[in-house]
Design goal:
6 helices, mainly alpha, about 85% helix, globular
Amino acid sequence: MFTETRSPRSTRKHFFGLCVALFMVAFTLGVVPPMMPAIVREFNSSLSYIQSTLVLSSLVTASFTPTTENLSKVFGRKKVMQAGLGFYAIGLLGVATSPHMPAFAVAYTLILGVAASPVINASWALMDYFYDDEAEKKQRLCWCCFPLWGGCLERYLLA
């Protein structure tokens, strides 16, 4: 059986790329709650509308997970993750340029919600693929540290 060897440099590069992808999702999910009052003022909307948009985004991400797994089996995890990152960028552009609340809700809930599923699922699967016993330690570190760093960046950059 053919065994693939990976250099430590390429392994670190993959790990850093996966961490950045997870950071991007965590930061996007964490940046909206502190900005809710400004979003309400900008769109002349209600706080409950924005809260429901946040909840729906998480539900869309969770409900799209089985479809992501099927797409990963057909097209490969790397391609599905790249497509997810591309759609995520489109969703972020839609959120940033939304002229009114319904456009914000569609971009945040549908586009970002669907695009976050392949990014999260593929990141977990690729972490398991690229790393041996040390993978669990690195996954925990990634899932613990990057959202915290995102919160710190959010607090000091947006304050």
